[in-house]
Amino acid sequence: MSAPKILPVIMCGGAGTRLWPMSRKARPKQFAALTSDRSLFQETALRVAPPEGFLAPLVIAGEEHAALIAEQLREIGVKPAAIVLEPVARNTAAVAAVAAEWARVNAKGSPVLLLPADHHIGDAAGFRRIVVAAAPMAASGRIVTFGVKPTEPHTGFGYLERGAAIGGDVAAVKAFREKPDAETAAKYVRGGDHLWNAGIFLYDPATMLAEFAAHAPEIGKQAAAALAAAKRDGAVVRLDRAAFEKCPANSVDYAVMEKAGKIAVVSLNAGWSDVGSWSALTGEGDHPAIIAIDAEGCVIRTDGPLVGVVGVSDLVIVATKDAVLVAPKDRAQEVKKIVEELAARGRTDLL
Amino acid sequence: MSAPKILPVIMCGGAGTRLWPMSRKARPKQFAALTSDRSLFQETALRVAPPEGFLAPLVIAGEEHAALIAEQLREIGVKPAAIVLEPVARNTAAVAAVAAEWARVNAKGSPVLLLPADHHIGDAAGFRRIVVAAAPMAASGRIVTFGVKPTEPHTGFGYLERGAAIGGDVAAVKAFREKPDAETAAKYVRGGDHLWNAGIFLYDPATMLAEFAAHAPEIGKQAAAALAAAKRDGAVVRLDRAAFEKCPANSVDYAVMEKAGKIAVVSLNAGWSDVGSWSALTGEGDHPAIIAIDAEGCVIRTDGPLVGVVGVSDLVIVATKDAVLVAPKDRAQEVKKIVEELAARGRTDLL
Q: What is the ipTM of this complex?
């Protein structure tokens, strides 16, 4: 018997203001071409759309991005199982529940790979191998998380604390640790038992639905109701507003994972990055619209204007048709201050 | 008897590639808004268009900028004596000769103030006072140059060596010194007898025409012929191509000034800058399209896109609709390398 195919569920929420000016309300970072000619969403869809091992992906997103998603999928020739639209944002727990319910009802209980649309994975083939190898563990009733060996004491990530070894590079999860302070993060990195929580989950729908029933029953119930009463129009599935609005907004980590029983962590060694800010990117770009003379360690991106730089180092330089960002890489997070100032000035056209 | 009014002749030649991306072939720096909401050309025209002391300006420019000049003059409400168009570029000597000939024929021999369109003068009123005070010296048969006390050993300027004092802040010019090397420039600055040659001249037409006759007769002759056979169409005067093409191309400094007899230098203490490169400018700009957070000593300009910067210092950042420049101020001259690379890539649209 061959293993059941995996249903990728791509979560398209998230605003990504730290990636202004390419990330905008109308076109958040996951739909921008940051790491290649394709958007992060397109790269994600292609990563899990190989000839075997995976089913056509389910995409879950906000109403406002429906057309963008359809267009970006069309561009890369990926036909989704469906594009599920949330009438309101209810964080990741509701998405995880909808994904599980969808798989139970429409995909014969296939295992779900829940993954954000805005991550960069350097080694797509390696990623697929790791996920496929973990599928039997999901079939055995475990929720599989993916942990990345920390390369620095990052305070912007949650951490997974490894417990007893299960076999190979897999361990039980002893604890979920929220974003630590710098001191704690340093301790985690020194200790070696903590991994960055990649925010990617592999689970059997029955397992996840049981965990919801046990730890977040209202979310499980309303998510199922929202899907049961959804309206389908071609590839687009609109969740029922009345039911979905009743879903408590919570992250899947808080609502379920931290309380759930059998959780495993698999080492994800495939060049993972959450592309949380410009400093997470690299490269001056061998792009026809970039001329970098004597530039070192810069992140340079453009979606139109030519960018010419001379003699600069360690800067983030991002140009779009209507806005330009320049900041040192180690202060790239502070782009939020610019976004705040834009909001204060009423420049909603640039948010 | 009141002093005769001065005829300002604004020279609009010059490419200004060091001010890319705002300075373009189709719109060189003198027509770009670099120092205020107005272009350098507009600032120049307004500087010499006060209610008294000056006649309506004569503008001398290349054919390709005729429409731009008419439009920019219209915007500021300045009606020129004429816009004289050169069918080919022949450097400043030909322009000085045309200006003198025009003043002789059309302006009753009024003194000519020959000035480039691309300078910035911080103190316009002071500039006018200095020029008007120098007019009697021009009437006495001297060619008046304007010297700026050097603030640094600049190697990009010519220098005027002061000779015997004539009175007040005026001296005879002992010698014109070409752009010096760094060592010589340093010596000039220490010595105190050398001033930057501002490239602005005040002269009676008869004086200048006599100097041309003595030192550059072919230029004087062909310039006069080109003006005599010019075609006038409203405010626009098109110099005769056949005659003007015969004008040897030379700078007024080389062709006439270095050989001329009675030359005086007046100290120009009015915040003069030739705006030769971005580093000559200052200011992060209190511009609605600039958000500068924790920025120090930067030159930031935009003619459209919003520019947001955080935590940068001593950078030149210039944004236009189709191109962005980022460089340290002390390397701003190297923008030429970007322009060369654009030419090599065939991006004439951006030159």
A: 0.83
